[in-house]
Specification:
By secondary structure, this protein is α+β, with helices and mostly antiparallel strands. The protein is built from four helices and two strands, in the order E-E-H-H-H-H.
Length: 98
């Protein structure tokens, strides 16, 4: 499986109201989390999620699709987004956000 890299550009965060949070970030800041998605990751995620779609787990089937190969689960990739947002949040807290 290829390495997937998610890069997130922080534009701005403006929340108002009683549940507003204060973020100590600059416009244009970037956070990056990189992870190589392995065969074991795909199979574990298929087992955990119950998503055994052949586009993810069956190489022969996947070759016959427009992708030409297996692809990682979209929800697995959302986990990379979650890791990236944690980096952003931790950076903000380190700068004094509460």
């Amino acid at each position: 499986m290829p390495a997937y890299c998610y890069r997130s550009a922080v534009k701005a965060l403006h929340l108002k109201g009683p549940n507003a949070i204060e973020m100590h970030l600059e416009v244009g800041e970037r956070a990056e989390y990189t992870r190589t998605i392995t065969e074991a990751d795909i199979l574990r995620f298929a087992d955990i999620s119950g998503d055994h779609s052949p586009i993810h787990v069956d190489a022969d089937y996947a070759r016959s699709t427009p992708y030409g190969r297996r692809i990682a689960h979209g929800a697995l990739l959302m986990g990379l987004l979650s890791a990236t947002s944690t980096i952003i949040a931790e950076r903000s807290v380190a700068r004094g956000a509460k």
